[in-house]
Write a structure and sequence with these properties.
The protein is mostly beta strands. The protein contains 1 helix and 12 strands, in the order ββββββββββββα. Helix content is 8%, strand content 42%.
Length: 144
């Protein structure tokens, strides 16, 4: 991950504890309410991102918190809070980006070997999604 300060509100870098277990690989540990600031209720991964024009995400969550890791390869995460926008290249398997509630995010520029791992604070709930950017901006402006 590029060494940047996070300017988007309600987000941040999460660094997992990791160990080099040479010659038997590395291990990274994510523990709910310890290294992850919430109870983990859902885990999912995204792979086979061979289409160079693919864009994932394109939504915000009303309440859900997530941490997004690139456990293999690299991709660019674009995210914003309705005022501040930021782009970060994720390529360090041990560091992820926390996306708190009410953050729009999109993922793009996937390497062929990219694997994304997401830890989420709640179960899937379609009602928690905002899938239109203009609607997101309206909701965020009503909160402020």
């Amino acid at each position: 991950m590029e060494n940047k300060d996070i300017i988007v509100k309600n987000s941040g870098v999460i660094k997992l504890q990791s160990f080099d277990d040479f010659p038997d690989g590395n291990i990274s540990i994510a523990e709910g309410k310890k290294s992850v600031p919430f109870e983990i209720k859902r885990v999912y991964f995204i792979n086979n991102l061979f289409n160079k024009k693919s864009v994932r995400g394109k939504h915000a969550h009303k309440k859900l918190e997530q941490i997004i890791f690139c456990v293999n390869g690299r991709f660019t995460l674009d995210f914003d809070d309705g005022v501040n926008k930021q782009s970060i290249v994720l390529e360090d398997a041990h560091s992820g980006i926390r996306l708190g509630p009410m953050l729009w995010h999109e993922m793009r520029g996937f390497s062929n070997d990219c694997v994304i791992l997401v830890l989420a604070s709640d179960y899937y709930n379609e009602d928690d999604y905002i899938r239109n950017y203009d609607e997101f901006l309206k909701v965020v402006n009503n909160i402020k």
